[in-house]
Amino acid sequence: SNATISGTATVSAGQVTGPIRVLTIGTGLVDAGFGWHADTTIFTGSSAVFPDSLSGSVHLQGADTLTHSFTALGQLAVDGAGALTVNGHVLVADSSLTIASSGLLRMTNAADSVDVHGGFSVSSITASSGAMTAGTLVLRGGFAQVSGSGLNFAASGSHRTVFAGTAAQAASFQSPGLSSSHFQDVTFDNAAGVTLSSPMASAGSATILAGNVTGATSNVATIAGNLVDASNSRWHVDTTYFTGSPVLPDSFSGSVHFQGATTLAKALKVLGAVAVDGGGVFTLGGHPFTVTGTFSLAGSGQLVMSNAADSMDVGGPFTVSSITSSGTGLSAGVLVLRGNFSQVAGSGLNFSATGSHQTILAGAAAQSVAFQNPALTSSHFQDVTFANAAGITLGSNVAVSGTATVSLGQVSGTARTGTIAGGLVDAGYGWRADTTVFTGHPALPDSVFGNVHIQGADTLAKAFRATGTLAVDQSGMLVVNGHPLSVAGAMTVANSGRFVMTNPADSVNVGGAYTAGGASSTGDLTAGKLVLRGNFAQLANASGDFAPSGTHLTVFAGTAAQSVAFANPGAAQSHFQDVTFDNAAGVALTSNAVAVGTATALAGNVTGVAKAATIGTALVDASNTRWQVDTTVFSGTPVSLPDSIHSNVHFQGALTLAKALRIVGGAYVDGGTGTLTVGGSITVTAATGAVSVLGGGASDDYAQIGHGGFEAASGLHAGGVYVGGNISVTGQTVLVSGGT
Q1: Fewest CB within 10 A of the end CB: N or C in the chain?
Q2: For the whole model, what pTM was predicted?
């Protein structure tokens, strides 16, 4: 039957057997000859004496400390209120070892060695914190931490658990976590492999010496220390969290989360997805880092690439949602992306590359780029290269604080703006963003697709073509520098923008409307030729925002009718220098206009209903019919006039006619200094025409008619008229009142 021994049981000779019998011993068992063969032995006292080995099942329910090595040939349990201290000795459980009830296994000596040949199970309601700080626990069967205290297996210090079975093993935790139950250091040395049947945590390092360690999708491993795998192929846990500063193998599979401060000491390849999240900081440290899956920067995570040798290659999508600014963390190295790029919620500066950092988009399939906070002062690339034959789509506006290079494929962006502080290198015309804004001193390609804004100081180094519109705005300045500039659409100079043409070789051709509304252009438009094929408008931003001088020439050469409008027309304000009208469909002045040099009408009519055109040097109209502005004012001494002018004409300088002049309109000598000397003949033929001398005496305006004839179909008004030839008045009366 079952029996209870309150003191010590001694076997001095023979055997004590008890199949299916439980013998409870209080103080100890003395059995030098291995004669004790009870089916189950329970030790209830403290500091019990044990033989070297004991058959059957053994339960330790007191506070016991080993004084020598002990082998349990059957099942071993530390249960009840038991506590077993290994005390620097070897404890072998030939079968299983169970820590149950309020039981506690204490391993605090570096020499402690516990070897369990069967399963190891912990269900104690007692926390093991501080009880498993040293020694080695060798498991040759399964490991299970089940119900009880969430800290009933909480190893620390230098404690190590070794999986060393010969058949496949499994490990499971009901309460896994670095602040719950976990291994300290754990070694996997089983050629048949170990499977994590639940999440697992190691507060120290995990080492794989033999076999594979596997874990399904939900069974993550959290490692606070290193992962050691000399084979670089045995770790196959689906997801691994590193919370410390680990030393890593060259390669391992599965998804990885870096949540501590990780600095690579050598090249690393992860055959899966990588996330730097929690409060993780991941530093490449001058080494290559390859991710075959996705990469995400989340939580408070930071990616540090500050070494020129840093090289990161991501095979899947790259996503940034960290709430932490990247600061100077992305200042060097090369980031190669083969999937989509997304900067989403989080800090507006969570991807703000600087220095010499370069991002290369080099996927084999089509890629996309999207920023939630795109700006040079927010998230942006430093240098970026687009090298994808399948093409890259801008899913948002994008900012580049360095140089953007398109080496392969096209970069398309419908209704998207690319802001580039450096240059655009695009030999194959692959850049297809709708709008491109240059804010620095860019090197430009031969041609840029779409609309272009120059907001920095740019000097052309070669011919340049904008296939859309061109704007020189904000505080931008564009210097043509002796090269051809072609704009397929409209061109605008706005805000404080400056457009500079000072080289005689400057050649600008604008296919759409031209709007001048920038800073004063005094001294900026002194040479070259500006050909306009759309309308011209000068806005009231600065009164001299279109004030060419020198040899500058503006040519109107559209195929449809064009218009000219000045908000501030004047020789001292906005005006043309020389202007040529070469449009068969005609050009209409919708405001007064000034040409301080020569106005030439080559094709089509130049009209201006109720508008005045002031000309400084000459009016050239070989047809004698194309100039049809209502009023024409010659402010100086014109060196050339056509034979006929269809306009009311005001002479405000000193003019001597060298040939006959026919004015279809009125002729006026005014302005206070006007002088008209007719050496040939002057004919005024319009029904309302008149020669008016608007002065009062010899010191004012006068018309002097020399040896030619003078004809007027209307009247001669007050002032002095000196006639050296004939006066013929048709249908009027000659009346000289108060004059000569």
Answers
A1: N
A2: 0.85
